[in-house]
């Protein structure tokens, strides 16, 4: 089988590869646009119809986010039910739908907004139907919830397109915020499962049988329920003190959970501490968002902390681990991947500072973007043989 065809043999191969490539492309475009403006120039003609900052936000939330989500679910769901994964034809078809969405959004300035909306919105329902077919083989409430999350994510994107279609007047900001908060909620759910579980497995493999990670159920319930409620509240237009308090409670509960997961033990293993770090940034991002809603701090800064540090950091951690594990490689992060783990939270802090101090805006944003580009370039180059090569022989 050729490397090109092998890419379509598993969800982690095609979708994680596309996510990495697209993360680099979108940020290169955004960095170029910003650099021209930082130098005093002006870029007036772009192929997309929306404002550049909205294209940037939409494509990283719904473009990159949907690819990372698809790769994870299409890899994990067959394992959850003990069933067979999809074939090459499905992955090629689904990947084509995802690429179609990115193309029409890029050329949206020359296309009907209705056409753009349809082409961009069709991917997630196809993904959801496939996952539903898998989960129905052995339905469990804790797995079926992912279909609800996909639905909320899809509705958030729909809200964005409804404003671009002139159907509503206030959908873009709410939809983007709800989409990002949906990804944040997924980190609370999935990160809350895999981070302590993988840490526990590693500790036991190292011979440690005591002081293992544990999860405090009340904290888990608050963190997950409140985090899942935030995108729904956003879609229904709820804001203000109650929203801020819920965000803060979700973040604090997440930190309480994290404190019991033995993060200090993982410091010598990047492939583990990256999960802890991504979950921590997500929790701090929710607290920062709650404070901003209560007029303490910048909401834009908080949203970028969630988008770059939490979503970017956790997805790179999960994607790299899943790719290595499912391809039969050792669960040890190569040094470029470990560097990427460290660069992304630094990028998040730089972008956070850019929003807090206007005089630092252009340097902060450009540094953040550069770190993001380098991190994902490392991710793509280092894992390219994993995505395109044959599965390693575990015995070898």
Strands, helices and their partners?
Layout: H1 3-6, H2 11-38, H3 52-81, H4 88-106, H5 113-121, H6 123-135, H7 141-164, H8 172-205, H9 217-235, H10 241-258, H11 270-293, H12 299-326, H13 335-356, H14 361-388
Structure description:
With 396 residues, the chain is an all-alpha fold. It has a single domain (3-388), classed as Up-down Bundle (Cytochrome C Oxidase, Chain A), CATH 1.20.210. The protein contains 14 helices and no strands. The protein has helices spanning 3-6, 11-38, 52-81, 88-106, 113-121, 123-135, 141-164, 172-205, 217-235, 241-258, 270-293, 299-326, 335-356, 361-388. Helix 5 (113-121) runs antiparallel to helix 7, helix 8 packs antiparallel against helix 9 (217-235) and helix 9 (217-235) runs antiparallel to helix 10. The model has no long low-confidence stretch (mean pLDDT 94).
State mean pLDDT (0 to 100 scale): 94
Fill in the CATH topology: Cytochrome C Oxidase, Chain A
CATH homologous superfamily title? Cytochrome c oxidase-like, subunit I domain
User: What class would the helix/strand composition place it in?
Assistant: mainly alpha
At CATH level 2, the architecture is Up-down Bundle
Q: What is the C-alpha radius of gyration, as a whole number of Å?
A: 20 Å
Quaternary organization: single chain
User: How many distinct beta strands?
Assistant: 0
Unreliable sequence segments? none
Total number of helices: 14
Major beta sheet summary: none
* Helix and strand pattern: HHHHHHHHHHHHHH
Straight-line distance between termini: 21 Å
Name the overall outline.
globular
- Approximately what portion of the residues adopt beta-strand conformation? under 5%
* CATH class term: Mainly Alpha
Share of helix among residues?
Answer: over 70%
What's the number of domains? 1
